[in-house]
Specification:
single chain; about 120 residues; mainly alpha; 3 helices; elongated
């Protein structure tokens, strides 16, 4: 996807007169940089949305993919602690184990059509 050019915040014809100082240039520079980055962020968000739509089209749950991505951002210790705490809370509310054992965790019944398993 081609990058869009962001127009400067202030056209040259509106620039201050000769009394203009370096601080104003710095401020304008920061504002323009943030504006360019905000535009890139919107484009990236659109790209991410397209990837989730593609996964959904192949039969995968975007909601679960987001959870996997969130958990992958954690280091191993924090991830395991969070899962253990989730299990404690689940059992307190439901009086049933979330996962009976590692080998008894719920697994998808079948791989979605067109999906490959590595």
């Amino acid at each position: 996807m081609p990058r869009k050019k962001v127009a400067p915040a202030m056209p040259a014809s509106d620039a201050p007169a000769a009394g203009h100082n370096a601080a104003a240039d710095d401020i304008r520079s920061y504002v323009e940089r943030v504006e360019r980055l905000e535009e890139e962020k919107k484009e990236l968000a659109g790209d991410i949305k397209e990837v989730f739509a593609e996964a959904k089209g192949r039969g995968y749950s975007a909601k679960i993919l987001r959870q996997v991505i969130r958990l992958r951002k954690l280091d191993r210790h924090d991830r395991e602690a969070q899962i253990a705490e989730l299990q404690i809370y689940w059992e307190a509310v439901h009086d049933l184990p979330l996962f009976a054992a590692a080998d008894a965790r719920p697994r998808p019944a079948a791989v979605p059509p067109g999906a490959t398993v590595n």
